[in-house]
Amino acid sequence: MTNPLARLENVSYLYPGAKTPALKNINLEIHSGEFLGLIGPTGAGKSTLCQTLNGSVPQFYGGRFFGQVIVAGLDTVQHPISELAHHVGLVFEDPEMQLVAPSVENEIAFALENLNVPRAEIRTRIPQVLAAVRLSGTEKRHPQELSGGQKQRLAIAAALAMRPALLVLDEPTSQLDPLGAAEVFATLRQLNRELGITILLTGHDAEELAEHADRIALLAGGELVAQGTPQEIYSRVELLAAQQLRPPQVTRTFQLVRQRGVAITQLPTRLAAGKRLLHALPTSCPTVEKEHVAAPDHLGPALLAIKNLTHHYANGTPALHDISLEIRAGEYVLLVGQNGAGKSTLVKHFLNLLTPTAGTVTVDGLDTRQLETSELAQRIGYVGQHPDDQLFTASVEDEVAFALQNLGYAEAEIERRVTVSLRQLGLLAHRTAHPLSLPRGDRARLVIAAVLAMEPEIIILDEPTTGQDYRGAKYILDLSRKLHQQGKTILVITHHLYLMPEYAERVIVLGKGTILLDAPLRRAYHAKELLRRTYLTPPQAVLLAQELAPPEGEGALLRVTPEEVAACFLPGGGR
Amino acid sequence: MSHFRSTYQHVARDSCFTRLDIRSKLWMICAVTAVALLWQNLVASGLLTLGIILVALWAGIDWRYIRSVLLLSTFFGVTLLFFHGFFPHGGIRQLTRHATLTPLFTFPAHWQLLGGQALYREGLLYGLSVLAKTLSVVLIIPVGIFTTELDNLIVGLVRAGLPYKIAFIFSSTLRFFPLLVARIQTITEAQRLRGLALEKMGLLQKARNYAKITVPLILGVLMRSQMVELTLQARAFSGSSERTQLHDSRLGPGDYLLCACSTLFWGGALIAYFGWGIGKW
Fold first, then answer.
1. Chain B residues in contact with A369 (beta carbon < 8 A)
2. Is B106 part of the contact surface with chain A (CB cutoff 8 Å)?
3. DSSP per residue over B142-195, as a string?
């Protein structure tokens, strides 16, 4: 570590009109050449801290700012944001909002043009950064034609191209598939090591931050709670739990092993270290355990059915090819696949938001082409990827009441259902607030509340955990389990595979518009190579389980959770 | 999204127009506009409009866009015909050099308000001529603008001497409309997902619904503009013209040819108008 490139001294900040500070007396140094991870629950002040570094806070937002932030020798209050941009590149959380150019290559060139970088140099950097984020070949495409994950990678590429001394990334991988996120992390690490770019990254990717960051700072309630190496921070599992955060799965697994009486001096935070420790400890998996397979009789008839579905977009691009599947009443299905695999395209057919190019889609035996979206929506509650696209009224309660008014419920019934739904999602206290004034996590929950108020029998959650911290994600998934237990059919799309073993029964793996695998969750999670083909990686617990002796006998338990893996370690061992 | 791009932004296919610089196309727009404004003759103006529609289709402008312009102009056209037909101003008499105009029919004298009022042939023809002029001007613009990639548009405008900030604002405005339309679509889709049966609504109900979404639409746009402003500043945008450009803007033989043809067309039209009265009423 060398001199600090950036220094925050006694920084406190209140947004205009806010009563409580978003940042409280922060003292933090960011050293030249380091990779600093900034973690914390939603609302901890991570984004605000990021924006102090390029001067957006307080220059853009106003509000009351105390203390001093110095970046590359410049006081961020005294120098305009456009000048600080020479030194600080900022990637925001929502890529949709930060793409400003009419083509991919122009998006990358925009900042370089502003910085007066010669044309030849711009032309050199464009393919470099596009290759780094797996977007080669998209130079001439319009950014709006890219998928959510691709847009995110483009925003990162645009920031990378500036080669700033400090690159600040605010949850840049939240919308990426796991391998995409891993590649971005690897790219950042490479830029960090080879070009010496200092990186500050916020996010909830504990596994990746443990692998790549030099240092972790933990923010909670606007205060800097702890800082140290990933080993020092992530091994403090209780501290993380107190902040509703989670350690990497490998750390969690060996914490459970330690609780079984195995002496472990240092909890591993990286997968490689976990595998070494696993092989050094005595293990023996119980042989009596068998895979729990849901009895077929708890499931009803086929509720959603797709037969030979092919879909091409209006411009002729193929999205889905000859897909057939059935989802039975009462199932909890997980739909996974890389960014752009066709997951959202597939589920939109259930609601007649998209029409099949070929094949049929039926809901309870009825062809969706014969039904209007508004009719289908009464049976299928669909919560899309971007909450802000689905909020359109002036208050939280109006948002929930909207559907009920359309369905013709009486005022008293509407009032009852609004209250129940808001209480269920923990939003009752905000019922008169404007939807867009809520934090992103709450906005996502509001959309769910609005959909649940209709009491649909099928619920489709499209990336419900994106932008949520661990607590928020668990809250939504626990609710989905509750609904499933009430007999609802649930279909969830997510990249966060580590969250799902407790919830889903069946996994459909989609890749390049076709079904690669349709299997019970445990078998799907252990199909490592197949998952890799669609840019997914199994959770660390699965990778650790695969290091154990292979399970014996047909139907033997394929382990997928830290608890199940930890059960294989024999008490009394130690290292 | 792609539909909106092809309809409101850049054309979907290449043509000789997509290979030309915006500056030569701006010159063409100016020349055609000048001729359209010069001619009063309905046949000449109509032929010019028809020619521009054919050129627009050849240039790859989506027929749906042209159709929407024609549909939107219907209301404008009816208004023009009504006012010029029933209430021809003095200019029409001067133009036709007729002291009295030709009535096509007259409302019975005992009718309230309209009693005795005549519909005049010259007024109708003048209204149609104004409509044709307007359509020519409105339809020649996309031939130049929609056939130019937005980044080339900015570069071309800057090379034409426009301050970068103004060129950027102009291109941002062009980008804004498809985003606005997409946002309206997204909101209505979200409403349908909450049981709103838009397809069963009458025009009035639909209009009321669209009025309701104005506020979230504006709020969404404001939030987006704020975010875009933040992003622009974070990308070192200052509005200064002192910046490099990824793309160059050079006038090629095709551009010079278009400029020459446009100038000839304009010059020829002027000579023909004043020399032989071609294009006059």
1. none
2. no
3. HHHHTTS-HHHHHHHHHHTT--HHHHHHHHHHHHHHHHHHHHHHHHHHHHHTTT
Retrieve residue A256's tokens. 């459970």
- The ipTM assigned to this model is 0.79
pTM, rounded to two decimals: 0.79
Work out the widest C-alpha separation in chain A, in whole angstroms.
69
Minimal-distance CA residue of chain A relative to B220: A388
* Distance in angstroms (rounded) separating the CA atoms of residues A454 and A460: 13
> For the segment A400-449, what is each residue's pLDDT rounded down to a tens digit?
999 999 888 999 999 999 999 999 888 999 999 989 888 777 888 899 99
Q: Of residues B170 and A398, which shows the higher confidence score?
A: A398
CA distance A422 to A428: 5
CA dihedral A363, A367, A369, A371 (to 10 degrees): -60
What is the arrangement of strands in the sheet containing A35-39, beginning at the earlier edge strand?
A88-91, A166-170, A198-202, A35-39, A215-220, A223-228
CB–CB contact A102 B3 (8 Å): no
Residues of B in contact with A94 (CB under 8 A): 227
Q: What is the full DSSP assignment across A360-378?
A: EEEETTEEGGGS-HHHHTT
What the block records as the tokens of A86 is 């020479």
Record: contact A351-B175, CB cut-off 8 A: no
> Over chain A, what is the mean pLDDT?
89
How far is residue B125's CA from residue A190's CA, in Å, rounded to a whole number?
72
CB contact under 8 A, B197 and A372: yes
What is the least distance, in Å, from the CA of B12 to any CA of chain A?
Answer: 10
Residue A88 has a pLDDT of: 93
The C-alpha atoms of residue A432 and residue A418 are separated, in whole angstroms, by 12
Nearest C-alpha neighbor of B195 from the set A219, A455, A17, A574: A455
CA–CA distance, B72 with B146 (Å, rounded to integer): 19
